[in-house]
Amino acid sequence: MMWLLACTGSADVAEAPSEPGTNPLHPPPLHPPPLHEQPEPFFVTPELDLQAAPGTPHRSVLIVSLDTVRADSLAPWGGRVEGLPGDRIYTRAYSHFPQTCVSHWSLMTGALPALHGNTPANRGSTWSGPTFAEIAKTEGYATAAFIGGQTLMDSQCGLSRGFDVYDDDFVIDPRDMRRHGKEVIGAARTWIEAQDGDWFAFVHLFDAHFPYTPEENLFDPDYTGGINGDDAVLRPYRDGQRDPTPRDIEHVRALYDAEIAEMSEWLKPLWASAGEDTLVLITSDHGESFEHGYWFNHKDSVMEGVLHVPLLLSGPGVEAGTDDAPIGLVDVAPLLLNLAGLPIDRTMQGSGPTLYGITDPFDPHGVHRWSERHGTQLRVEQKGAATCWSWPAEDQQGCAGDSRRPAYTRLLEQLDDRVVDPPDNAHPMTPDECQRLKALGYIESC
Predict the structure, then answer these.
(1) Which of 38-47, 50-59, 194-203, 309-318 has the lowest mean pLDDT?
(2) Which long-range contacts (CB under 8 A, 24 or more apart) does 15-24 make?
(3) How many CA atoms lie within 13 A of 205 on its CB side?
(4) What is the Cα–Cα distance from 130 to 125, expressed in whole angstroms?
(5) Residue-range domain boundaries for the chain
(6) Lower CB count within 10 Å: N or C terminus of the chain?
(7) Cα 377 to Cα 401: distance, rounded to the nearest angstrom
(8) What architecture is the 58-352 domain classified under in CATH?
(9) Which pLDDT score, from 0 to 100, does residue 178 have?
């Protein structure tokens, strides 16, 4: 979910199961510090280089991000979760980065992850191109975001650029670092229903993220094994110390899917509040891994289960049907801006015929991976070596053709002048932040 931040605080803490409040990883729920005591986000003043607007009527826009949701958990991709609307289904939509903050910056700006820098360490992006919200504001839109997870809080990610309202002040439960989806949706509905002009709303739900603790075990009630979705139980598997059995994996996946199904139900009133004249896009920042020996995590993977995300689009001007062409999250902002009658910034890259992906290059404990999806091949490069897979079936195969990394590098270099220097006084993580992210599996020690 994050680039790695510099930690301050105590040494590792024992992680044995315990009652909330008796283990530093499971303290009682707390409000975040008052806003005036939180670290200041880092904001770049945007440089707008807008093309002419398409000349079509303005449309209000709703983006719903279902954090950590794989495409193949949803019915249009063969999964068991139904009920999410979509006039147009993009069957081959991909994230470019398997962590929350940076992936959402790419979603909002149409710029690849490397252009945003070490966003959580800097507490904001170093990209000077505009966000979707900043462009919408230039056209008179009201803008608001409703945040469901700690790692998109403004003090950690700086994503509030262009939003009139950035609703991220909520009680943090250190056992899962989420704000309940029903609360996020309720706040969004209240704001949407109060608007009397054009608006843009971003709704972020964190409920499917680890741990997997649905209110009801909808899909595997007969399981009698010893595994569940709790942090204390799954951590040895996530840390590579144990391997689950196929039946255990099936059960954990059922718990994960049950959380997604619950979100699908909670969202139904939001669609009614948005109305038929609104453009509604549903997607995710990344998925979750239940294969390849990488269990119940996502931050170090560029494989199909992690980077293949849902993309569902509904509303005026949307052609109904299925689109099987590859599309990246960097394509979303220009796509929606055009449909909403808003101008597109010339820096918005789009993905072209090749979809690039990377893992966190700033993580000293991780193995940085770079990937390209082109034609029917997924190529993964790591420490100078390449491994290739068929795409999307993921059968390992020999690598055909040369790496497109030089083209990727040139793409970044063309936009280097739009990247500003990071702040000199970036705030280190507090001990509480470090422990919470360790519990989520994004850092290894504090």
Answers:
(1) 38-47
(2) 15/232, 15/235, 16/232, 17/230, 17/232, 17/233, 18/232, 20/175, 24/435
(3) 29
(4) 11
(5) 58-352
(6) C
(7) 10
(8) 3-Layer(aba) Sandwich (3.40)
(9) 87
> How many of the other CB atoms lie within 10 Å of CB of 373?
26
DSSP letter string, 392-403: TT--EE---S--
End-to-end CA distance of the chain: 17
Q: Looking at residues 262-282, what average pLDDT do you find?
A: 98
> Which tokens sit at 56?
């079509």
Tokens of 118: 């070490």
The predicted pLDDT at position 176 comes to 76
Helix axes 100-109, 332-339, angle to 10 degrees: 40
Can you point out the beta strands (E) in 196-271? 199-205
For residue 120, cis peptide bond before it (omega within 30 degrees of 0): no
What digits encode the pLDDT tens for the residues 28-39?
A: 444 455 544 567
* Amino acid symbol at 82: E
Mean pLDDT for 79-95 is 97
d(CA 315, CA 326): 21
Cα torsion 282, 269, 166, 148: sign: negative
Burial class (CB in 10 A: 0-12, 13-18, 19+), 50: middle
Helix (H) or strand (E) holding 323: strand 321-323
Residue 114: pLDDT over 90: yes
Which is nearest to 378 in space by CA: 444, 295, 292, 320? 292
Distance, CA of 165 to CA of 118 (rounded, Å):
25
Do residues 8 and 429 make contact, with C-beta atoms less than 8 angstroms apart? yes
More confident residue, 212 or 16: 212
Rounded CA gap, 135 and 45, in Å? 13
- pLDDT score of 17 more than 80: no
**Per-residue tokens: 138:** 């230039």
Determine the average pLDDT of the residues in 412-429.
83
pLDDT bin (cut points 50, 70, 90) of residue 428 is low
